[in-house]
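stage 2 :: seqdesign
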């Protein structure tokens, strides 16, 4: 596959391997995680970073940069990152979506990044306070319809995949819900357990609170029921033709050397499929969503088309 074909697939520009990169890496690599420590993505990426670092012979250091709905890592790559392979960041759907929901697009997600590997996704679900009056999804919908503007839900940020999925669900039910964004999914779950917000619609950082009896999970958004929560129905079982896992991976700045990309991909792939990282993903019920570099670049390009269509359809704007 030549460079022109890669660009036609929406790939970021990849140069031919440079002789000067033969010793890569010769110093630590930084991986930006745009969420607070403690969440599922942070745990999975920290595990992958540690394992990849062993294979590379250099530490892969995780740096948490929170805010802006998880897009600060991409912002750094685009504005300050050098395409030398030493600065990487999580690539996720909020980054793909952002250019279509703001007045001044900060980047072209297809051309302004080098997409290295697709890794996994999230188990999303809706949870409420365990000792509250809402016992199941039917109760939740009934409450929303009977209490106009009083159904509140929290997520890890504005215009995240889970936020948009909730807007879609509430629109289908004719419910006016109030979105209360938090900086991270673990903070969002705690807010519901403490009674600050009625419900959380986010990734499985809520799972320990469900298992501990503080929260009750009333729906999950995977194609099949989550193994840890076999009694909780999926959205499909509840009558919605929806599966939401929001696949993510790792990317770098535009124009990275193809040889460096291969080195990073191979180390991260080995980490992803290792027993240790598999165990972390199982802990958070995270589905495997592996793509090699070419396939991930193609996936991002196709997803960008979808996100643009959804933004137009739902008239999404955050500024």
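stage 2 :: out
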């Amino acid at each position: 596959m030549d460079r022109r074909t890669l660009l036609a697939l929406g790939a970021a520009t990849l140069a031919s391997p440079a002789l000067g990169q033969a010793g890569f890496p010769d110093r630590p690599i930084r991986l930006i995680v745009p969420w607070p420590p403690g969440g599922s993505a942070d745990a999975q990426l920290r595990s992958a970073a540690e394992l990849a670092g062993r294979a590379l012979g250099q530490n892969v250091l995780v740096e948490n940069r929170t805010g802006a709905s998880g897009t600060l890592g991409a912002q750094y790559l685009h504005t300050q990152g050098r395409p030398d392979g030493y600065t990487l960041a999580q690539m996720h759907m909020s980054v793909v979506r952002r250019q279509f929901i703001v007045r001044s697009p900060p980047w072209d997600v297809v051309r302004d990044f080098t997409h290295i590997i697709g890794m996994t996704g999230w188990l999303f679900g809706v949870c409420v306070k365990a000792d509250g009056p809402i016992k199941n999804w039917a109760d939740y919908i009934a409450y929303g319809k009977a209490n106009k503007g009083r159904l509140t839900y929290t997520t890890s940020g504005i215009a995240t995949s889970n936020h948009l999925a909730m807007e879609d669900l509430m629109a289908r039910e004719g419910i006016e819900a109030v979105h209360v964004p938090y900086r991270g999914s673990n903070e969002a779950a705690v807010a519901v357990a403490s009674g600050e917000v009625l419900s959380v619609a986010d990734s499985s950082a809520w799972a320990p609170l469900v298992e501990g009896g503080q929260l009750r999970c009333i729906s999950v958004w995977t194609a099949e029921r989550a193994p840890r929560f076999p009694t909780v129905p999926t959205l499909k079982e509840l009558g919605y033709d929806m599966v939401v896992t929001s696949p993510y991976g790792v990317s770098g700045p535009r124009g990275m050397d193809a040889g460096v990309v291969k080195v990073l991909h191979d180390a991260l792939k080995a980490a992803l499929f290792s027993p240790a990282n598999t165990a972390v993903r199982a802990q958070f019920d995270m589905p495997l969503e592996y793509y090699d570099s070419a396939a991930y670049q193609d996936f991002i390009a196709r997803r960008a088309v979808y996100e643009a269509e959804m933004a137009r359809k739902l008239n999404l704007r955050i500024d």
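stage 3 :: structure notes
- The chain has two domains: 3-19+27-121+247-314, 124-220.
- The longest helix spans residues 293-314.
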